[in-house]
Q: What sequence folds into this?
């Protein structure tokens, strides 16, 4: 579903795209770059289902042979169609429905905060891991960082999360499936995204979010950081608690974002800014000039706060035991591997029964 405004802003489908390319994926890539408004219709009771093909349909065979729905190439920047795009020059007869809804004001009666975890002070590591699809073996040493972010989200009641710079596929999957209401923006540009590489980097995350959560997820992948700042300006306000995560080591842009972030005032859109791989000898003068509070949670993790009057006692709850995380992870890993084994065993047994 696409509003008339968004359709005109996008200038319709990309008419220079090669035949057979998946239009829905390409539209999403362009709407993210432009920061166009999108609504998760699940929140207002509108659900969409995709039914499987008929028994003798060739659809699955075509998809597996790459003869249908090719992946769109990564848009480095927004390339609209020319002024005569689509059927713009055609004279069309316009008609309207007889019964029109006055507004969608009823949707605000279902605020996201109603979906929040009722047990705000409990950090259930085991259940959080079970709610994800990956085994997280490659990212096992990132778990402490991930559960530190989860603690911050719970304690400070974060509504919107931004990750600037790709770190790993486990971070957003674990956090997004823990807080299903959370609006998430992911920004990254790396050489690994070129071609179809971005599917491999965030494909697992999107696949998991499609079936498990209702919060908004946007991924902006572009060399031009202005797309990121435009999106933040348009979609973030001081009415919500927003958290920005900067993965300084993983992305070259992240090393330069701090300067523009504070110089041009974009930091005001965020109540909390979390910088990983922070070096203690870095200059903090610009942060101090903006009357911001900052604390080192760990030796390489800096938390910046907009509100200097925040209760100091809440910082004591940010500590997460590494021993607790890794011991719980081992139990989760045994559980998940054993569960996968039982599923395969069951399938094997049923194959003999048939």
A:
């Amino acid at each position: 579903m696409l509003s008339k405004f968004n359709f005109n802003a996008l200038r319709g489908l990309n008419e220079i795209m090669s035949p057979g390319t998946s239009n829905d994926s390409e539209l999403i890539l362009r709407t993210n770059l432009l920061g166009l408004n999108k609504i998760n219709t699940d929140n207002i009771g509108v659900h969409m289902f995709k039914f499987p093909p008929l028994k003798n349909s060739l659809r699955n065979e075509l998809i597996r042979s790459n003869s249908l729905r090719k992946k769109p190439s990564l848009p480095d920047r927004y390339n609209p169609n020319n002024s005569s795009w689509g059927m713009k020059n055609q004279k069309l007869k316009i008609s309207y429905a007889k019964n029109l809804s006055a507004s969608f004001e009823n949707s605000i009666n279902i605020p996201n905060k109603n979906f929040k975890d009722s047990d705000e002070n409990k950090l259930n590591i085991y259940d959080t891991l079970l709610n994800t699809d990956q085994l997280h073996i490659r990212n096992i040493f990132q778990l402490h960082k991930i559960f530190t972010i989860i603690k911050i989200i719970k304690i400070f009641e974060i509504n919107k999360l931004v990750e600037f710079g790709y770190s790993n596929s486990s971070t957003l999957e674990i956090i997004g499936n823990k807080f299903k209401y959370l609006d998430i923006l992911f920004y990254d540009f790396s050489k690994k995204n070129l071609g179809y590489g971005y599917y491999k980097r965030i494909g697992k995350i999107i696949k998991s979010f499609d079936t498990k959560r209702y919060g908004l997820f946007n991924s902006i992948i572009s060399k031009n950081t202005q797309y990121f700042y435009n999106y933040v300006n348009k979609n973030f306000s001081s009415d919500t608690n927003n958290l920005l995560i900067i993965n300084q080591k993983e992305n070259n842009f992240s090393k330069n974002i701090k300067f523009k972030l504070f110089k041009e005032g974009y930091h005001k859109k965020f109540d909390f800014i979390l910088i990983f791989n922070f070096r203690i000898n870095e200059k903090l003068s610009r942060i101090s000039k903006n009357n911001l509070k900052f604390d080192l949670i760990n030796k390489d993790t800096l938390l910046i706060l907009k509100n200097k009057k925040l209760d100091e006692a809440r910082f004591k709850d940010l500590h997460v035991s590494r021993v607790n995380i890794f011991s719980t992870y081992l139990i989760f890993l045994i559980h998940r591997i054993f569960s996968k084994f039982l599923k395969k065993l069951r399938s094997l047994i049923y194959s003999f029964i048939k």
